[in-house]
Amino acid sequence: MFDLMQIGRWIVIAGISLLVIGGLVYAAGKFGMTDLPGTIRWQGNGVTCVFPILASIVLSIVLTVVLNLLARLLK
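and the corresponding structure tokens:
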């Protein structure tokens, strides 16, 4: 069973991670990185669909590396 100190540590780590990810997203939007290469955009009659394929792959790789590093550090 988890104790309160360990739960508090996880909440702090999650909060710092969200702060860093939020800052990166904010900076990306501020510098005009809204349409990355590999983004498929389909526009119809009043409908726009965006499929960020490359961004999804990059995000998946980055999150895999970060979560693996966190798992190794916390074990």
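(Above: one complete record from the training split.) The beta strands are 39-43, 48-52.
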